[in-house]
């Protein structure tokens, strides 16, 4: 499976072979859905909380005597059924993360890459580098490549000038290869891999 390689200036830089085991799979929607749910659940803060009756500020004195008033039996005013009282069974800080086997996570990444390759939304870039950190100039180059909504995956480190040039562009994300993930791949229209990122991903996922 071959793919054309282009430069940041939209010039041809040859071709490259894509591994069938990584980019040639039939995408499975169920696996991709599970992985996206896993990622979104894991990133939730889970810091929602309400106060129960032990945390409400107020007196602990009994409201009125137990018998003889004709009214309901109450203790103090912090009970949940009373206005201003503590919340019964309210949410407490917790983790929303769900389990996912490592093999399934790796499989999901393969299927996400294959989905982009099959939809012809995969672009292989020679290098993601820039001489100057100029956003306007970089925007013109990306526009020439047809990249209006894209995830650009570089090598182990992102070129400093390139990172500065694209960070204010809407719908353009940049990640080092070790940070590539299914959710970020699927949320953008195009996936751009540098040759270094491609080699690293194939070595990791084969």
Keywords:
206 residues, alpha/beta, Ribosomal Protein L4, Chain: A, 6-stranded mixed sheet, 7 helices, 6 strands
**DSSP strand content:** 5-15%
* Distance, first to last CA: 15 Å
Number of domain modules: 2
SS content category? alpha/beta
Briefly note the CATH topology name of the largest domain. Ribosomal Protein L4, Chain: A
Overall geometry: elongated
The CATH homologous superfamily of the largest domain is termed Ribosomal protein L4/L1
Describe the structure in brief.
Helices cover 34% and strands 14% of the residues. With 206 residues, the protein is an alpha/beta fold.
Task: Describe this entry's structure for a reader.
The protein is of the alpha/beta class. The protein has two domains: 2-43 and 99-205, Ribosomal Protein L4, Chain: A; 50-90, no CATH class. The protein has seven helices and six strands, in the order ββαααβαβαβαβα. The chain has helices at residues 20-23, 29-43, 102-118, 135-144, 160-166, 182-187, 195-205; strands spanning 2-6, 12-17, 122-125, 150-153, 172-175, 190-194. The chain has a six-stranded mixed β-sheet with strand order 2-1-3-6-4-5. The mean pLDDT is 94.
Topology overview:
Elements: E1 2-6, E2 12-17, H1 20-23, H2 29-43, H3 102-118, E3 122-125, H4 135-144, E4 150-153, H5 160-166, E5 172-175, H6 182-187, E6 190-194, H7 195-205
Helix pairs in contact: 2-3, 4-5
